Amino acid sequence: MDDNYSGDSLGGFFQKHSSAESSVSASLNNAAAFGSARRSITFDHDDTGTASVETNAPKKKRVSRMTGGGLRQFSAKVCDLLESKGRTTYAELADYIMSELAGNDSETATSLSEFNDKNIPRRVYDALNVLEALDIITRVKKEIKWNGIPDRKMDLEGMKAECVRMMNRIGRKTAYLKDLEEQFADLQNLMFCNKELLKSGNTHPGGFSLPFILVQVYYFVIFCWFA
Amino acid sequence: MDDNYSGDSLGGFFQKHSSAESSVSASLNNAAAFGSARRSITFDHDDTGTASVETNAPKKKRVSRMTGGGLRQFSAKVCDLLESKGRTTYAELADYIMSELAGNDSETATSLSEFNDKNIPRRVYDALNVLEALDIITRVKKEIKWNGIPDRKMDLEGMKAECVRMMNRIGRKTAYLKDLEEQFADLQNLMFCNKELLKSGNTHPGGFSLPFILVQVYYFVIFCWFA
DNA sequence: GTTGCTTTCGCGCTACAC
DNA sequence: GTGTAGCGCGAAAGCAAC
């Protein structure tokens, strides 16, 4: 049986080495002949051009996609990067992403980077365009500014901070309040004591008296007098 | 006029025969041979180089691009649509966008739609992929759900409400506090007075009494007196 | 497992803009 | 030339049906 392993994914392994053509034809045949297993990791090379036509060995296209490693993957990366940098340029983005991708290979390094060198930049453009359409970023002459998923982060953060601030304020006020309540209670005790003293007749009649009045009024008329 | 639009390739429509090795070349030829003119909103072309192969007049690929009418444009549309529908499917999206685009033409209608029939769907996929990477949408088996710029709306509203609530609470506490402070001040005054009286010797050594009255009124008339 | 079709979408050629 | 991006071929993934 053939290979058909399935794997992949992640792997990303496809090498694209551009070299021998024999491989090419082989790949073609494989695909057709075996019919079954498709995916071959790839091959080919280039020739690019378009064309080619004649006779024999037509090349193919290469590929074997890096499953799951397309626009979606790059968009996410682009987004993270943009968000963390806030303001950057296309070149910086592309470089960063490329270097990141280049890190995880073993021997396909060269071929991989050759591949990425051309593919990533193109994908980054796609991602940027969508992001721009959503107003998540703004492009002004080469400079890319992250507006952020509209206010989300900023406002959320801002409001959280505000919340904390308010909580603290409430805490302080509450403590002060408690303090005052205690003092208030103490004074009420004082009043009570005075009253008791008075009542108990413990007071000296000719003593002193303090015709004293304290009136606190909030909203209405008050008549008060004494003689 | 020569607008040539016309045909298109349709290319896709040769089914994929993947069989023989000739397949490759065959497809190429088809494209070339039938290929002939493909729309051009603007003009055309020429035959540039690449390709083509034998025989007759093969045109190529071309297609003068519809500047500015690419991923960016479609992304915006896709986004609006998704947001308004909340939950839909790829097919619905594509159809909707296509019909919308088809509306604004004059005579190129046919060619345009033929063109769009193939191009738009592809673009919609691009847009969806980016959106998905940003978690703005979620795809579950053909169904596309709009998550909407992550919680933004919900959280923002929620936190604003929370803020208002807290502000009110602070207001109430503050008023109460002020109230207590005043009462406190009053009582301290009372204490002070008492102390002064005491000190002034006006007091009777055997104890003091303070026929005293403290009245606090909130809302209504009060008559108070003593003699 | 394997045809055979449909849905996604990787990838890169190449047209334009600057 | 270089930077951007329109555009679409055809491979891979998903789905039946055999």
From TrEMBL, chains A, B:
Belongs to the E2F/DP family. Keywords: Cell cycle, DNA-binding, Membrane, Nucleus, Transcription, Transcription regulation, Transmembrane, Transmembrane helix. It comes from the Eukaryota. This is E2F/DP family winged-helix DNA-binding domain-containing protein. The keyword NADP does not apply. It is found in: Nucleus. SUPFAM superfamilies: E2F-DP heterodimerization region, Winged helix' DNA-binding domain. Residues 66-148 form the E2F/DP family winged-helix DNA-binding domain. GO terms for biological process: regulation of cell cycle; regulation of DNA-templated transcription. It holds the Pfam family WHD_E2F_TDP. The keyword Transmembrane helix applies.
